[in-house]
Design goal:
The protein has two helices and no strands. The chain is mainly α.
Length: 53
Amino acid sequence: MSLHNFRSFLYTLAKILGDIQAIKSGNPKKIAKRVGRRATGKATGRMLRKLFK
């Protein structure tokens, strides 16, 4: 396994663990904030990808 693949795996794992932690808290505000930030991040990434392509 290359360093790139291992780092990618760790980032993915951290993202999933953050989702689990927000859901496990049971606080709807934390869950909504997490979902909103994930959606905003994805949209921003798509826009930047198109801009710098």
